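Objective 1b of the project was to move from sequence-level analysis to a structural picture of ligand recognition. The entry below was assembled by the postdoctoral researcher (A.K.) and checked by the PI before modelling. It contains the amino acid sequence of the target and the SMILES of the bound compound, zinc ion.
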Amino acid sequence: MQKNNTESLRQRTLADEISAEGIGLHTGRQVHLTFKPAPENYGITFRRTDIPGSREIPALSKFVVDTSLATTLGRDGIRVSTVEHCCAAIHAMGIDNLRVEVDAPEIPIFDGSALPFVRMIQRVGVAVQRAMKEFIVIRRPVAVGDNGKSARLSPSNSFGMRCRIDFKHPLISNQVIDIKCNAFNFCREIACARTFGFLKDIEMLKNAGLAKGGSVENAIVVDGFSILNPDGLRFADEFVRHKALDAVGDVLMLGHPLIGHLDLDKSGHALNHALVEKVLSDPSCYEVIRATPAEMARIETTLPAFKAAEVLV
Ligand SMILES: [Zn+2]
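Corresponding predicted holo structure:
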């Protein structure tokens, strides 16, 4: 078992604020995004700066209002969409407290992966806070699914995932990834995996006034037998890696970093959120623990230390 040092069990925010600009996938407009440090025990929040007086929206399951094309948070009728790649980076990098501000109804899509968000976090660095982290530890298996799709969480001593996809498409078909979702593996194996779409679906979305910013600049675009991106794929199985990335973001909505094993078979945002809701609806399925060394020894976790040097992207 890996020894946990006390610093790796303390809450983290960013050392300073940092901003970036990028296109919104659906509006096609330039969007300004800012990460701001937050006090300990604050959690992760999103706020629309283009709407005066709008309240912060916590990244929690009860504020998820739509999972159809992306994960959308909402409060008082105000929405922030496409939060999942940003949330994946925040979760995987061990950030507990952060204010995310955006001047549009969606988070910029950047290159369609989580890498730009990881780089924002790395550029400014993390600040270790005094309070100990809190984790959600899965105590009993919980599963949801229908029509051959399933999502399951079961007890484990760290955050791991097995994710499988099976598209009826010659370039994608059956792909599986098994991964321990620590910061190092996330950065090395899945952070740069891009979202993907089929050309016919993208054209349909554009006709419906959506995906105005969608292009090979921010997604893998697939037609009948080829990938339209001039530089091809970043991994042969980039598609399933991206599904794993989405899931790391979606389970942030549990409200705490996860200690449990996630099994996903042809799952997506809607099923991932159904799983999160089912877990939270039954307190016998989970336990929220304060990460004192004694508690961490009790659950025999093998969490890695979140050392900046571990993460090379
Ligand atoms: Zn995605």
